[in-house]
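Hi team,

As requested, here is the filled-out complex form for the C2E run. I kept the field names the same as last time so the parser does not choke. Let me know if anything looks off before we queue the next batch.

— J.
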Amino acid sequence: QAKEEGRCTYRFYTPSLTRAAKERLALEARLRRALANDEFVLYYQPQFETDSGRLIGCEALARWRSPEEGLVSPARFIPLAEETGLIVPLGEWALRTACAQGMAWLKAGFPQMMMAVNLSGRQLRNPELANEVKAVLEQTGLPPQQLRLELTESIIMDQGTEAVERLQTLKALGLGLSIDDFGTGYSSLAYLKRFPIDELKIDQSFVRDIPEDENDMEIAATIIAMARNLKLEVIAEGVETQEQLDFLRRQGCRGCQGYLLGRPVPATDFERRHLSPS
Ligand code: C2E
Ligand code: MG
Ligand code: MG
Ligand code: MG
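And here is what came back:
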């Protein structure tokens, strides 16, 4: 009986698994082609000082301009790029492009600001990462103090003591390190002391339901207070309403990023909307 059920289940699942696998392979091939054909672009989202409203930086976010599908969100291609290892060349492209853009804005006379670039676990595991980052900084000319690399808690926790060394090597280049999606990972707070971190980014899931969700308000306030005590900078992601902004300001959250203040946009739009010569 059980055997028969098993066989039934097997027969039922095979075609759909095969289809999923085929789709994955096709997507992987298209991603490879996209990288070769220069179909990826970076969008830039502004980051502001909460109190003054001054622009303090931007985050570079990858998009895929697919000839067939139009603009594809990173939620669709980053996980696969990560699995296949394609994230390494893609990540290097993103770093290089973002640094070159940051330098171009600096040369054009716009006020100095941070350029934040996301880093994947695979990239951190690459022993050549620090050398590559160093080369990109030298080749583009962007001052290392203006580069900030964003990593998630899980990336750091997964890689243990090796991560500490890699992060220290990166820090030694003069750049800043930021914990992305803070509060959603393993949340072992001990690592905050061990890792050479400069900034916490409060995950948007804690910001989204302010002021309806009192727990979220409590969590956000706690992260802000903790950052202050540990002498870390703190920025909130996903700020969509004036109420959320007011709450974060009252709590003393230094930075804010979100649709209320500016969506991720192509470089030319970013320039037009957010930059004016100093
Ligand atoms: P992330 O680094 O946490 O980036 C923040 C995400 O929140 C971005 O999504 C951004 O567009 C979105 N966001 C910003 N403000 C708001 C808001 O007010 N409301 C809402 N609902 N969303 C907001 P995006 O651009 O789709 O990127 C998703 C994720 O993909 C990023 O999360 C990051 O983990 C990853 N990613 C993007 N570009 C790269 C890249 O170049 N390299 C790597 N490794 N990962 C990347
Ligand atoms: Mg990020
Ligand atoms: Mg985030
Ligand atoms: Mg995220």
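Two things worth flagging: The radius of gyration is 21 Å. The chain is about 50% helix and 20% strand.

Thanks,
J.
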